[in-house]
């Protein structure tokens, strides 16, 4: 059962679970706050605990909100764009043919029809980034399914403002932020593994942390690196 409490401008999602200890988390990149409490915990007790941790919550949210953000992209000649953590310069080619993207060791070449505006250029690059993710994600899932003993029935890509990934435990599916195509591949792998572990343990409980420690011992370093990289301007 999930309820919400509010401390000033901070909304906290409170979930009652069969756990022994309280688990308070502030999630990047937007500073979403969740609180997992034992099943019989009264809401006023959960509120009192959150109030006692308010300074810590505010410090975490401030850190996330001050994280560097990309400047809005205009999709013009020699603009910087990223794939797998590497910077490329954009090259624009106008041609009366089907739009496409080509990658070489220094450039991302975007071919569009004459007169195509920023929105169309962005759409073509976005779909290309999705293709890069579709090329990598199945390989990662196939690698980790036998290790974790889980089956991913399906995965979905979408733009997310507050999370790098998500999991539907009952359906056996995971969701991944399309911004991950811009980050190093090892960070994509970390997020995929993180969500796959949620298929075993839905919450950020001690059991979840134990599983990550066992199977992906460098997860804390990966999480820190991911959260230090620039966020989307959107």
Please specify the SSE layout and strand pairing.
Elements: E1 2-7, E2 10-17, E3 23-27, E4 32-38, H1 43-52, H2 54-65, E5 80-83, E6 86-94, E7 100-103, E8 107-112, H3 118-148, E9 154-158, E10 165-168, E11 173-177, H4 185-198, H5 206-215, H6 219-228
Parallel strand pairs: 2-4, 6-8, 9-11
Antiparallel strand pairs: 1-2, 3-4, 5-6, 7-8, 10-11
Helix pairs in contact: 3-4, 4-6
What is the gist of this entry?
The protein is 37% helix and 27% strand.
Low-confidence stretches: none
The overall pLDDT, averaged over residues, is 90
Q: From the helix content, strand content and strand pairing, which structural class follows?
A: alpha/beta
Number of strands: 11
Give the count of helical stretches.
Answer: 6
Largest sheet: 4 strands, mixed
Principal-axes geometry comes out as: globular
What is the percentage of strand-forming residues?
A: 25-35%
Order of helices and strands: EEEEHHEEEEHEEEHHH
Rg, nearest Å: 20 Å
Distance between the termini: 32 Å
Percent in helix: 25-40%
Order the strands across the largest sheet as they lie in space: 1-2-4-3
